[in-house]
Structure to design on (302 residues):
């Protein structure tokens, strides 16, 4: 099942939430979807699922255009939104039975049982949703997204707020589902995307800034450069840091600064010299290994 996002733009008044975004998802792909808060991720996912309409461009599923009133094409997608809205006064089986009824499933009792088993809800199946932990509520959300056996699964922050054990279980479930489905997974947890998504799509300020296999992205983005974390005893103006010879970028991190320098020369002696000349005490001066987090920052700080 192929999903084509073609030159999609979306406006909220004068604000452009999406700016001509294009990429393609194919069957059996588990694609990580990343971007800073406000980048347009949730907006695009709602357009893919037909909850919102695009102002420009279009989304095609197997060559057929997705629209808000095209119920047949919308049945091909399963959607778990970020806030995972559920009816807390309903029992798990009761809720899933209602969802199955909305999709007019002929075998919905059997399908509800299958979803409870697939998502590991068995131990809690007789509870009301309001009595469930965050991890089990996320499982209920996964079950409702999958109950009609959609070909395309859109997951918006499915592991938000989960403990490490819950995270591992949900991650394994998503990986298993992606063997047969097309899955787009949005998450703020970069390590999660790095662990299970072979390909990543990154948007920033509504624009596509990366679409690549993760391994290729690492190879292409990790050009020779040094990233140093520095923390001073007193506040320092970043406009002064950028003047240090060899410095190409400065960004805040915690109580200190991330300083980048192109090439292979070590920038730390210059930072030390800056501190001495300005009478600044250094609390930390540490080179950081480049990783996926660094790549994400490079692509989204602009």
């Amino acid at each position: 099942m192929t999903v084509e996002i073609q030159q999609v733009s979306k406006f909220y008044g004068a604000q452009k939430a999406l700016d001509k975004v294009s990429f393609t998802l194919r069957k059996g792909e588990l694609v990580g979807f990343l971007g800073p808060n406000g980048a347009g991720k949730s907006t695009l996912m709602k357009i893919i699922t037909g909850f919102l309409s695009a102002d420009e461009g279009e989304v095609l599923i197997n060559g057929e255009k997705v629209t808000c009133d095209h119920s047949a094409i919308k049945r091909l997608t399963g959607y778990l939104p970020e806030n995972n809205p559920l009816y807390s006064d309903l029992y798990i089986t009761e809720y899933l039975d209602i969802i199955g009824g909305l999709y007019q499933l002929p075998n919905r009792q059997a399908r509800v049982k299958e979803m409870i088993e697939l998502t590991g809800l068995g131990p809690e199946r007789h509870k009301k949703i309001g009595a469930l932990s965050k991890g089990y509520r996320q499982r209920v959300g996964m079950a409702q997204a999958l109950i009609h056996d959609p070909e395309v699964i859109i997951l918006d922050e499915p592991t938000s707020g989960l403990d490490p054990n819950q995270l591992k279980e949900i991650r394994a479930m998503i990986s298993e589902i992606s063997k047969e489905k097309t899955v787009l997974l949005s998450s703020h947890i970069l390590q999660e995307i790095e662990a299970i998504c072979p390909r990543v799509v990154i948007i920033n300020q509504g624009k596509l800034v990366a679409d690549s296999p993760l391994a290729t992205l690492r190879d292409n983005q990790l050009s020779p450069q040094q990233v140093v974390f520095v923390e001073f005893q007193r506040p320092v103006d970043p406009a002064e840091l950028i003047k240090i010879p060899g410095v190409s970028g400065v960004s805040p991190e915690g109580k200190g600064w991330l300083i980048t320098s192109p090439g292979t020369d070590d920038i730390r002696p210059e930072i030390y010299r800056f501190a001495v000349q300005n009478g600044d005490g250094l609390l930390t001066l540490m080179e950081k290994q480049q990783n996926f987090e660094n790549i994400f920052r490079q692509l989204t700080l602009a």
User: Anything to note?
Assistant: Residues 92 and 125 are 6 Å apart (CA to CA). The domain at 3-216 is CATH 3.40.50.300 (Rossmann fold).
